[in-house]
Amino acid sequence: MKNQTVLSSISLLLILMASPFALAFASTETDDDFLNIREATVDADSDEMSAFLKTHGHIPTNGDGGAFGYGLLTSEGLDAVVVSTTHAGVLDSEEQDDANDPVWHNHFVTLGDDSVNCGDDPAVKSITFESPGQIRIQDENADLTQIPSSFSGTDALNQDDLTIAPGTDVDDVVSFKLSPQFNDNNELEAVCVTDIQPADNVVSDNDDNSNNNNDDNTNSNSGNSASQGIGQVESNKQ
């Protein structure tokens, strides 16, 4: 009984010590089937693209799923990734009312290496404060529309001018989680993109022969891209 009391006290202490920001990124869902994309249908021309994603589970819109999202990987690689994401804890989008708003929003992001904070996982290096295109979540589906081939706006990390041009040549569609890294002062040091999963099947409406079945092809290249952005400092709506 004494040992149980000690263990309970230690557990409570660890909970109290946990960063409130880190907790905001944690999922309360017991089933993450919404991270498994059953099929993604992509439609694109030279100026813009859209993608309709069907997942294996109900997609949370209230923050219960933690920090996660979906990404469109184009021929531009990690230099220009389109993501739709939800998270609470950090204000990095003009679509959010405040830092705790888990509203879904889009970003164009650049990913890169940060071995100190993220190990082998990619890290967010630049990210639009604006939300290019539209994102609509309903039940098990995510509908990304009017995604431009290029966007100029503001970098949510440092408020500098930023242009990211992913183009419209989509190579893959993925889901991912976000893992924020904090220093001893609970200041955000980095955001790592983890648990990257390619869609089971990607279909292009522009080319009937471009179906891409990923059921047995979870390659490491997909594991080196996609993210949602999280700014290191809160940005005011502009």
TrEMBL record:
Compositional bias ranges of the Polar residues kind: 228-238
Biased composition (Low complexity): 200-227
Region annotation Disordered: where it falls in the sequence: 200-238
Superkingdom of the source species: Archaea
Protein's name according to its UniProt entry: Uncharacterized protein
Organism listed in the record: Candidatus Nitrosocosmicus oleophilus
